[in-house]
Amino acid sequence: MSISEKKSSPKSETLFAKAKTIIPGGVNSPVRAFGSVGTDPRFIARGSGSRIWDEDGQDYLDYVCSWGALILGHAHPAVVEAVQKAAALGLTFGAATAREVELAELICKAIPSLRKLRLVSSGTEATMTAIRLARAFTKRSKILKFEGCYHGHADPFLVKAGSGLLTFGNPSSAGVPASVTADTIVASYNDASSVEEAFQKFGPELACVIVEPVAANMGVVTPNPGFLELLRKRCSENKALLIFDEVITGFRFHFGGYQSLCGIVPDLTTLGKIIGGGLPIGAVGGRSDIMEQLAPLGPVYQAGTLSGNPVATAAGLATLNVLQSENPYPKIERLTMTLVKGIKKIADDAGKKISINQAGSMCSLFFNPGPVDSFERVMTSDREPFKKLFNQLLDRGIYLPPSPFEAWFVSAAHTDRDLSFTLEEIENVFRGITAG
Length: 436
Ligand code: PMP
What we know:
CATH superfamily of the largest domain: Type I PLP-dependent aspartate aminotransferase-like (Major domain)
Number of domains: 2
Structural class: alpha/beta
CATH class of the largest domain: Alpha Beta
Bound molecules: 4'-deoxy-4'-aminopyridoxal-5'-phosphate
Strand content: 5-15%
Order of helices and strands: HEEEHHEHEHHEHEHEHEEHHHEEHHEEH
CATH architecture of the largest domain: 3-Layer(aba) Sandwich
Number of strands: 14
Radius of gyration: 21 Å
């Protein structure tokens, strides 16, 4: 396809212009504005399996999959049916329901460190609650996080935070008082010496360390051997809690948490995305003695009108049931491996130095000779070729995350044919990028 065949999206353009008059930046979450890829966003009308359709009727092979929530792909029949059935019985009660108990039981069985679990409505609420719990339980104020890890947009995390902020190059957000972040210590992911330094300086004052066990918000960066073990060890020695933020990694690699794969037991875990099957959900869980600090049992306040929502729990349960019965994990990991190997070969043949990090069914391409194992290295990646790749693939019907610092997600609905098509188009684009 030549550039003259570029897809035109008049309806998306009109909608974006209108949206900007009424919604700040025209979007309800910043990365959706396509700011870092220099084009206008497509407005999405529908999705099915591995594909989405924009308002102009053009289809795209989707590697965003609602930022990892849709591990089964779009509009999976079992999930849609469960949602329809639940919706017909009432959308929300603000009261206890059987399905909440069923979902909590299923999740706790799959992730044994979760002795008790509370459902909330987003990952942000889950991490916010987790650090509140940690602070209450330890009676300490300081928290340690890692640069490039993203834990949602609660104020204490917005210190050199990742995700969208990385793209905008802002070290933190306006509107967050210095007093609120004064207790947030930031260390470098995969850097043992920065962890040691943080513990030497602040160890006895730390309520918790919070980490994405596989970082996926600065692109995918896997933990170096020994890194997570070090966190566990220093937390235990210093009586600080270890929180694994598994909002992305939970149920992404197998039917459970990444923690079972790496063999490290955190004190608290946060979840989201996949456990809601595409509807708004989050969860915080862990040791009983910590979880029992939550109201109404304990003194830590936390609540939510739509927490444990009956439609969201139906979508989550349906998704988890399909994952458990069909075990699509080996297939999606193999597909992702095909993609990664294929891109490496294309880049090699084109004489282009790139790195691709893969963890299970997620991966990220960095225009960087690598290895890309830290936030600093991520930041030395070349953004311009990613921008070209993104735009040219979009025109060819492939929808990547609209930022060089996000994970690409492969779902159980993706097929070998989808992957072959993607590789063919990437090859075509790479020729252009390297020639240009
Ligand atoms: N933690 C992690 C690891 C995430 O990736 C995200 C969102 N991408 C969050 C927390 C926040 O979740 P939400 O967007 O549902 O608030």
